[in-house]
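User: I'm curious whether this sequence folds into something compact or stays loose and floppy. Could you predict its structure so I can see for myself?
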Amino acid sequence: MDTEFLRKCIKKIEVQNIENADVEVINRSPLKMMGKGRQGAVFQFTDDICVKVFGNEEDCEREHYALSLGKDSNLFPKVHAKGPLYIAMDIVKGIDVREYLQSQPLTKELSIKLIEMLIIFKEIGFERIDHHKRQIYIQGDGNLKVIDVARTVWRDRVYPYPRKLLTSLGEEYKSMFLTHVEELAPELYEEWKHYIQMEEISREIYQRTLSQYKGKELKKQSQKLLTKNNDSSYVSSLEGLVHKVFKEEWVKTMLAIGYNPDDVMNKIDEYWDRRELGHENEVEPKWKYEPRRQIDIGKLYGSKSWGKDKGKQEEKDRYDKKYYREVQDKKDNNKQQESKWNKVMFSEKGRRKRRY
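Assistant: Here's the prediction. I'll summarize afterward.
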C-alpha cells in the first residue's frame, strides 16, 4: 500500500462536521467518494481498500479503537493505515441488512447471526451492544461484517438491550426477530422484554410529568392576561369593551330602522377622537354655517336716523369691527382645532389610539 500517495491525497480532502447532518466534503484529490455520514466520508483508494476521512480527531480515534478491539474477529474490516483524521481499511462488500430485507424475509438463520454479532460486541468490550441494520453487511458466504463502529465505545450511558437494531428492523421484523430470540434464547428474550416494558413506563412517566409541568407553567403565565380592579388597565379594558359593544349594537339598530350606519359610525368616531384630545365638552363652531347677523342699529339706538349722525356712525363702525374681530377669532380657533384633529386622525400614532 502506497502510504505516501495516500497522505498526499488526504491533504487535498476537507471534511467538516455539521450538527445533526452528514458532513460537508471538499474533494480536490483523485480519489472517488463512495459515501458519507455524520462522522466522515469514505473514498476508494484501491479495488479492495478504502480510506475514511473524519471531520475531527476524536471520532477518528474512537473508530480506530473500536476496530482494534475487534481486530481478531472476522466481523470488522482490517485496518491498513491510520492518521490523525483518516483510517485506511478493507472495503466491506456485500449487501446491508436494510437492502436485504426489502426483498428477502428475516430468517431464523439471519437472526442467529445477528445475536452472534451482539455476543462478539459484548466479548470484545463494546459499551453499546447494538448496531443499526444499514451498518451491518451480509457477505457472499452468509457471514456478517459491520462498519461505522465509532459510537460503540467511550459511552457513559447506553440502552441495556439492542434498541437501535430492533427499531431499525421495523415493527414487522422486530416482532419476528423477538420471536426467534424467544425460541433460541428464552432468558435473553425475557430480559429484553423487561427493558422494553421499562422504557414504555419511563416514557409514560415523562409524558405525565411534562403535562403537569405545562399545566403549572400555563397557569403561571396566564396571570399576565388578567386585569385587576385596582389596575388602570382594568378600567381601560372595561371602557373599551363598553364602547365596542355600544358601537356594534348601535350600528345594528341604525340598520334596523333604515338609517345609514356609516354616518352614525363617523359621528361616533369623531366624538371619541375629540374625547381623546380633551375637547369632548366643546361644541363645534357653527359660524361657518351661519349667515352674517343682520343688526338693527336703529332699534339698537332707538332711532332710524342714527346713520346720519357722525357720532353714531363711528359707534356703528366700532361695533362692526368688534363683530368681525369675534368672527375672525372663532375662525382662527376653529382652524387650530381642525389642525389638531387632523394630526391625530391621520397620523400613525392617531390610528393606533383610535378604538374602532
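Summary: The longest helix spans residues 310-346. The beta strands are 13-18, 21-27, 32-36, 40-44, 49-54, 79-82, 86-90, 95-96, 136-138, 144-146.
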